[in-house]
């Protein structure tokens, strides 16, 4: 039953574009009405019609501890009681920057912003300021937020040019964004051959998680490290999803490859709006008021948000075994899907991130991800949703496992997935 959700969606569409404040929430790709959420605790999310679902969206990543963790709620409440925003520095921001530096050592100095988009946009500006170069390289299918210069797609034919991927973005704003292919070293090499001394940075999701989950091929991240160093360009890891998710130190710890600049979002805010970017002092000294790269924010380091982030990171740090637990649970789901898919569906899983692709091809890059049967994904989505499993309403998003998912949740989930998939794939 989704009567109330349907009513609210109709009302919402009158005053909010498409009825939602972020497009993927509209369920457009799966042809359903979005569930309006009333509350969520632990692994469960409850909609306005009273349907309780096991949640694998986890707000698109922040919810690594599950929803409404009592310790996080307590710290946020305490912070709120002391005043919501001051526009002046607070001790909490110092503690959060210290903890980030401790967990992610390459982020010796970091700046807090209010979203992942803002973190990436600022990181790119710093990379350009530091190198004195204009061009950046991004990968097709990787998402880095919605700032103008990163909303690009590869131009027709030539890999060396890019065009806006959204109306309202002037072509001029994207001409300095070059597009390479994820997991394809030769595409990066070609861009450096043609533009070597103009490239300020290569930006990558170290595990691609916005084309569905696609892990880096062995040697790919090492190659990016090497070619950027050789060309005196910076390497930016966009760890907005992978940060504190794959390991306490993110993908850079998991894969032992150290970038020059890291961007964080999602988990670092513990469910509140925070992004962060940082690197070694020499680079971050470019940022205003120390250096000439301007970047600012009225609500940056907001007390309630910083409290949520700080407590979330503290909980993770106290209990590093969480990563083993997360991986084990995700693997049970992945193995279950493999056991029924018989090669007609693929599962990619890294730590607590996973994706089911409806294709018989191994998914190792953007092209193979696109070979998925999205109509089949829609049917899968509808079936599992109706049985109380809330997964991403799009083929090209990750499934997130949280520490709040119990063994029983995983068992129920596997039972539902096994049923739905064996129907769908037979
Ligand atoms: C979500 C995401 C962003 C954008 O973060 P917002 O907080 O939505 O602005 C940037 N990069 C990656 C890898 C993301 O997954």
What labels would you give this structure?
single chain, 426 residues, alpha/beta, Aspartate Aminotransferase, domain 1, Aspartate Aminotransferase, domain 2, 2 domains, seven-stranded mixed β-sheet, four-stranded mixed β-sheet, 16 strands, 38% helix, binds pyridoxal-5'-phosphate
Written account of the structure:
- The structure is a single chain.
- This protein is an alpha/beta fold and 426 residues long.
- It has two domains: 3-68 and 320-424, Aspartate Aminotransferase, domain 1 (Alpha-Beta Complex); 70-318, Aspartate Aminotransferase, domain 2.
- Helices cover 38% and strands 16% of the residues.
- The chain is built from 14 helices and 16 strands.
- The chain has a seven-stranded mixed beta sheet with strand order 4-12-11-10-9-5-8, with helices on both faces. A four-stranded mixed beta sheet has the order 1-2-3-15.
- Helix 2 runs antiparallel to helix 10, helix 6 (185-195) packs parallel to helix 7 (220-230) and helix 13 packs across helix 14 (407-425).
- The chain is globular and about 55 Å long.
- Bound molecules: pyridoxal-5'-phosphate (PLP).
């Amino acid at each position: 039953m989704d009567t109330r959700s349907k009513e609210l969606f109709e009302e919402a569409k009158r005053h909010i574009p498409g009825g939602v404040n972020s497009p993927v929430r509209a369920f457009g790709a799966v042809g359903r009405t979005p569930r309006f959420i009333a509350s969520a605790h632990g692994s469960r999310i409850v909609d306005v019609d009273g349907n309780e679902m096991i949640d694998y969206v986890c707000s698109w990543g922040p919810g690594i501890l599950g929803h409404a963790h009592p310790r996080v709620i307590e710290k946020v409440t305490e912070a709120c009681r002391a005043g919501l925003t001051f526009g002046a520095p607070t001790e909490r921001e110092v503690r959060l920057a210290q903890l980030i530096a401790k967990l992610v050592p390459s982020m010796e100095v970091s700046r807090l912003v209010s979203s992942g988009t803002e973190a990436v946009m600022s990181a790119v500006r710093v990379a350009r300021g530091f190198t004195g170069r204009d061009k950046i390289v991004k990968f097709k299918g990787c998402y880095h937020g919605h700032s103008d210069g990163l909303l690009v797609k590869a131009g027709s034919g030539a890999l060396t040019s890019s065009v806006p991927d959204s109306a309202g973005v002037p072509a001029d704003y994207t001409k300095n964004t070059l597009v390479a292919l994820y997991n394809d070293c030769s595409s990066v090499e070609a861009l450096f051959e043609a533009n070597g001394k103009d490239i300020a940075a290569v930006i990558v999701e170290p595990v691609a998680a916005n084309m569905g989950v696609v892990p880096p091929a062995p040697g790919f991240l090492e190659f990016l490290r090497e070619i950027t160093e050789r060309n005196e360009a910076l390497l930016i890891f966009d760890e907005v999803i992978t940060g504190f998710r794959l390991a306490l130190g993110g993908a850079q710890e998991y894969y032992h490859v150290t970038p020059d600049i890291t961007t964080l979002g999602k988990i670092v805010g513990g469910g509140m709006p925070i992004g962060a970017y940082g690197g070694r002092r020499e680079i971050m000294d470019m940022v205003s008021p120390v250096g000439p790269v301007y970047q600012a924010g009225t609500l940056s380091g907001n007390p309630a948000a910083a409290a949520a982030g700080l407590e979330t990171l503290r909980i993770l740090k106290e209990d590093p075994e969480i990563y083993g637990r997360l991986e084990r649970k995700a693997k049970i789901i992945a193995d279950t899907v493999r056991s029924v898919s018989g090669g007609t569906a693929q599962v990619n899983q890294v730590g607590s991130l996973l994706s089911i692709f409806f294709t018989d091809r191994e998914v190792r890059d953007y092209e193979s991800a696109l070979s998925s049967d999205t109509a089949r994904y829609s049917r899968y989505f509808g079936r599992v949703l109706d049985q109380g499993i809330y997964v991403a309403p799009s083929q090209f998003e990750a499934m997130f496992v949280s520490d709040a998912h119990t063994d029983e949740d995983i068992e129920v989930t596997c039972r539902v997935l096994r049923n739905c998939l064996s129907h769908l794939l037979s």
